[in-house]
Write a structure and sequence with these properties.
about 800 residues, five-stranded mixed sheet, about 20% strand
């Protein structure tokens, strides 16, 4: 078994005899296209004569223990150390490898100007790809970096650069020591980045690639950041603790963002080249605030191990929405959460691979897969319920005490509950057992004049009896809309009487708890035929309807027609969710797929024309993209796509959406795609062109083979496989034959990209996947088996929904 997959047991054993004081890290960047020089010196105390360091790279050239060079004992992942004393200084000189997978130190070459851009991404355990270290969150230390790079490059670290010195035609940057933090939070960014300094607060700067700087709307980014910081400092009772605040938008990024203290990285997808909906701006604001809240939740007070990942991610997910409401114009943040993010939670939480919010994370592979809808969205929804349960004032009072007591250290659930109990006067042990240590969503159902909670933990089969504090709204029709006329807050654990009367009763209409809401038939028909005036209640109702579809309780055709009826939905985040749900049900839940595809394409086209006629830019943007996807399986819709294409002249991304749709049915040629690309394409255009070419019938097998055989970046692999798996005249690929070789030969992030892209989408995949699980994959790593188990679960649900109607 490889030692790369560090276990919780080994991490705990190491932490029991090691205390780290500091790291000194020296990097030599930019002289080679494949590798870089790295040297780390670790000062630590030990109560054992031996331990190990973590390093993933090209070579380990020298190990010096307390001033003495020792034989290198490195298995490709661990460097074994012997002969330690009570106080130690260990230096490792090595060569690291640049990444193309978005893990470790990623290297990107801009196709426009040839600029080389570097950035790091470490969570959960890829700092060991940059420098030798002890890679676990509870071995915090102070880090001092120096970086040698081309003189024209900008070089950034978590702290400020205190001085530079010239080294020939290169420059060495010396950074001040960090405060105590975990290895995964260290960061380095280097390259010819475009920089903008905030005119209102010298701590803030923003960066992006030079070739996309014309689209960089840094003013809005700074406005959100400054407003957010003020709100967080007041809420947490503590000034921002990390000095400067750089925000860097980077290419080929696997995530939305990463909370490195003082040096936050974001996907450059948040730099909008064309029209961006209000929902896209709101999502960016939410992400900025999510990462900012991590400066306290996660960076300042850090979980001991990844079991308590929720202590930072659930809180940041909650705080991103909370601060959007408190500090920005995007006060509809909980609409987006209730209309989209909770579905991510429900999908994950209903699988056989579900886990409690406090998860059992035995190793790093499991940790990497725990960044899911349960840890983020369910955890945030449960925190929102906790705030309703204890009160917002008590919640933040407990948080302030938590930070005061545990700053720059590591924590567990008990540490947080202790402070929340003291602040609220409530015993939270039973609450935590019901909410944080059980799995699966429960259902709160309208039954006559009662609400009933039902549900069972998918892992144990035990009945779920969670305490909920919710609002129940009573609605009446007014001007053809449902308007809230009365509301009551109630507590429900088993069953509760509905405390008010109305034509339409909507439990949890303010979205303050985590549960599937099941309407009665009158409520279902009412929500499908008349708009609910309040957008948050509307999002809750639409989520209820979608979960009814997923349960086989609501005919997908009724849902589709309901969305058609409200094609002019004003909230762009909610409309985007409704469109995505319809696109999914067309392909996966329809027993007569051909007819439903045609109906959906008709809905998309009519809605697009209506939005165009009304001048509704957001609606036009969303329905045009939906039309492009719908047309990707219907050659006879090519004229609709061409018409839309002719109306889009200055939005590159919108044009590529339509061209990819045309390519998937062979309605555009390779030569036309090349012409669209031009001679000096931007990176986004290059990736979209690659997707479109790969989607052409007759090109898909070659795209698949290229993705499997060539040294490509994360985004290039995704583009190739997105095209190769186009559903019109779909090809099948031997995913179960290649699953284990891919897992063994690729990094986990890339392996997951490949395997999720290639997993079967038709019912025959159930038998094939099940055979793999009991045969060739019986002893495969648990993280790989999870991918296959989840695929089978999805296919079985698809079949169940199809057979129900």
């Amino acid at each position: 078994m490889t030692t790369e997959n560090l276990s919780r047991a080994d991490a705990a054993a190491r932490a029991s005899h090691i205390t780290i004081d500091s790291y000194r890290v020296s990097l030599d960047l930019g002289t080679d296209e494949k590798t870089f020089g790295t040297e780390s010196t670790i000062v630590f105390s030990a109560t054992s004569s031996s331990t190990f360091l973590d390093f993933l790279g090209e070579s380990v050239d020298e190990v010096i223990v307390n001033g003495k060079s020792v034989p290198v004992s490195w298995d490709g992942a661990r460097i074994n150390l012997e002969g330690l004393g009570e106080s130690n200084e260990v230096t490792v000189r090595a060569r690291g490898r640049y990444s193309r997978s978005g893990e470790g130190l990623h290297r990107f070459v801009d196709p426009v100007d040839g600029g080389v851009y570097l950035y790091t991404q470490f969570e959960p355990a890829d700092a060991r790809r940059l420098f030798a270290n002890m890679e676990q969150p509870n071995l915090k230390a102070s880090f001092t970096f120096d970086v040698t790079a081309p003189a024209e490059w900008t070089v950034l670290n978590n702290t400020t650069c205190e001085r530079t010195e010239e080294v020939g035609d290169r420059r060495r940057h010396f950074f001040t020591p960090t405060k105590r933090m975990s290895t995964y939070l260290t960061a380095v960014v280097a390259g010819p980045y475009h920089r903008v300094n905030c005119p209102d607060d010298e701590r803030f700067s923003a960066f992006c690639r030079a070739s996309i700087s014309e689209y960089f709307d840094h003013e809005e980014i700074f406005d959100i950041s400054l407003s957010g910081l003020k709100v967080f400092e007041e809420a947490f009772g503590m000034a921002y603790p990390w000095g400067k605040y750089d925000q860097v938008f980077v290419p080929e990024y696997n995530l939305g963002a990463m909370e490195n203290p003082g040096l936050v990285t974001f996907t450059e997808d948040y730099i909008f080249r064309g029209h961006a909906t209000r929902a896209q701006h709101a999502a960016r604001a939410n992400t900025i605030l999510h990462e900012m809240s991590h400066m306290w939740f996660g960076d300042l007070a850090t979980p001991v191990w990844w079991d308590d990942l929720w202590l930072k991610e659930s809180f940041a997910e909650f705080m991103g929405a909370w601060a959007s409401v408190a500090a920005t114009e995007f006060t509809e943040a909980w609409v987006a959460f209730s209309g989209a993010r909770t579905n991510w939670a429900f999908v994950n939480d209903m699988r056989p691979t579900t886990h409690p919010i406090i998860a059992d994370i035995p190793d790093l592979e499991a940790a990497d897969q725990n960044f899911d809808g349960i840890t983020y969205a369910k955890g945030a929804a449960v925190l929102r319920q906790l705030v309703a349960y204890v009160g917002e004032d008590a919640f933040f009072a407990g948080a302030r005490s938590y930070f005061d007591k545990h700053a720059y250290s590591n924590t567990t659930l008990t540490d947080l509950l202790t402070e929340l109990e003291a602040a609220s006067g409530r015993d939270l042990a039973a609450w935590a057992d019901e909410w944080l240590k059980t799995s699966g969503p429960s259902t709160i159902e309208v039954r006559g004049d009662s609400l009933v909670q039902t549900g069972a933990d998918p892992r144990t089969g035990e009945e779920i009896r969670r305490p909920h504090t919710i609002s129940v709204g009573a609605y009446e029709l007014e001007n053809d809309e449902w308007v809230r006329r009365d509301a009551k807050r109630i507590d429900i654990t088993n069953e509760a009487t509905i405390p008010l009367a109305g034509s339409f009763i909507l439990p949890n209409d303010t979205g303050e708890t985590y549960a599937i809401i099941r309407l009665d038939e009158a409520g279902t028909e009412g929500a499908l035929t008349h708009r609910i005036a309040d957008p948050l209640a509307r999002a809750v109702a639409w989520m209820s309807l979608w979960q009814a579809v997923r349960a086989g309780a609501l005919d997908p055709a009724r849902y589709l027609e309901g969305v058609s009826r409200f094609h002019d939905e004003a909230d762009s985040s909610l409309l985007a969710s409704l469109i995505a749900n319809c696109a999914y049900l067309v392909e996966r839940y329809s027993s007569d797929r051909s007819a439903v595809r045609e109906r959906w394409a008709e809905i998309c086209h009519e809605a697009y024309l209506a939005a165009r006629s009304d001048g509704a830019a957001d609606l036009q943007h969303l329905w045009r993209a939906a039309l492009a996807r719908a047309g990707a399986v219907l050659p006879d819709r090519a004229e609709d796509l061409r018409e839309a294409l002719g109306e889009v002249t200055d939005d590159h991304d919108a044009r590529w959406q339509l061209l990819i749709g045309l390519a998937a049915t062979g309605q555009v040629t390779r030569e036309q795609l090349d012409e669209e690309l031009g001679e000096n394409p931007a990176e986004a255009d290059r990736i979209s062109h690659l997707t479109a070419v790969s989607a052409l019938p007759g090109k898909r097998r070659a795209a698949y083979e290229r993705a499997m055989s060539e040294d490509l970046s994360n985004d290039e692999i995704s583009a190739l496989l997105t095209g190769a798996t186009a559903r019109y005249e779909a090809e099948s690929f031997p995913v179960f034959d290649i699953a284990e070789p891919v897992w063994e030969s690729r990094s986990q992030k890339i392996a997951e990209r490949i395997l999720y892209a290639l997993m079967p989408t038709e019912e025959s995949g159930i038998e094939a996947g099940s055979a793999w699980l009991t045969g060739e994959g019986a002893k495969a790593p648990a993280a790989l088996r999870k991918i296959v188990i989840d695929c089978i679960d999805t296919l079985e649900r698809d079949r169940m929904v199809r057979s129900a109607h």
